[in-house]
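In line with agreed milestones, work has continued on tokenised descriptions of protein folds. One protein thus recorded appears below exactly as we store it:

>
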Amino acid sequence: MLAAAKPKSKYIFAILRIAVVTAGLTWGILWLRQADRFAALVQVLRKMNLWIFAAVLGVFILSQLIIALRWWLLLRAQSVFIKYWTAVRLFLLGWFYNNFMPGSVGGDFVRAWYVTRHTDKRFQAALSVFVDRALGLFTTLLIAAFCYTVFLSGQRAIIAYRPKDGFLAVFFTHKWLFAAVVAAAAAVLAVIVLYRPVNPVLAKLFSSIRAPVFTIFAKFKNAAIMYFTSPGTIIAAVAMTVFLQVMVITAFWFLGVSMGIDASVKYYYVFFTLTWVLGPVPVSIGGAVVVEAALVWLFTNVAGVAVEAALALALCQRIVWMLTSLPGAVIHLVGAHLPKDDTQIPASKDFSIDCTKPVN
């Protein structure tokens, strides 16, 4: 019975993600069919300069190569030495999984899995993927906060959402009661843990997991020390993130101008970075529908852009993402993400951490 239930539960998460995208697309199609909105959307897209769109596509491809370089540097900080183009192939594979595959295994996990096939330092290699993701998201949030403070602070700001009914209204009205319930639950948990008759059971449980937990903790500590002893790598990674995001967002601003969108670039710097943080949230496929809805809402309600124009801009971004994901499919089909005997470098060799070496 359990064996039969396990394969079914494996697909629940994928079904939910597909359902979110399907529901969003259905709602969007029904919305476009009203009041000649589809015709207005097509009219905005016809204004777009195709050469500028091609330039945006090229800029975005360059940004992906820079992100792969950032990850490659983080790998080298952990003494994981793989070729730069190997890192590019693995990154593009993960990018394809993020944007096209509805399964519960995201692109970061795919990248982490296959990079361990290229080195003996598997824990450090896999950890670098999530450090790369965390560093990128943190820098994105910093950019959004900085741009909002410099450009939009004191102007028409986003008003905090306080619903009039529903669960969120109850939460806002009785927030202190919810806090008291959480505190009481924490107190009960503490009593259960500290109550002596239960201690032998917990001690037996803790003893069984203590050794692997301590081993993982020690690996985390060693990896963190290696990153802290390579501050130049972290600074370079942050600088590259800022550069590539400013470059990509500015390119989309030029694209928006070609479509007749009358909005300052300062809105782009805030709105794009905010919505990019939503992309990794695993509620849809590659953030589809969620990112577009947030971007359209921000441009229409804060920057005063027509909804059809904001939707056209959001769709162009999605198209660019999908087009740049296609090389990942080719990499997967031809097996270019798998290691070769002549490219794998054993971690047992004594390598010094030197991120200034030229890219292979």
Summary: The two ends are 52 Å apart (CA to CA). The chain has 14 helices and no strands. The longest helix spans residues 122-152.
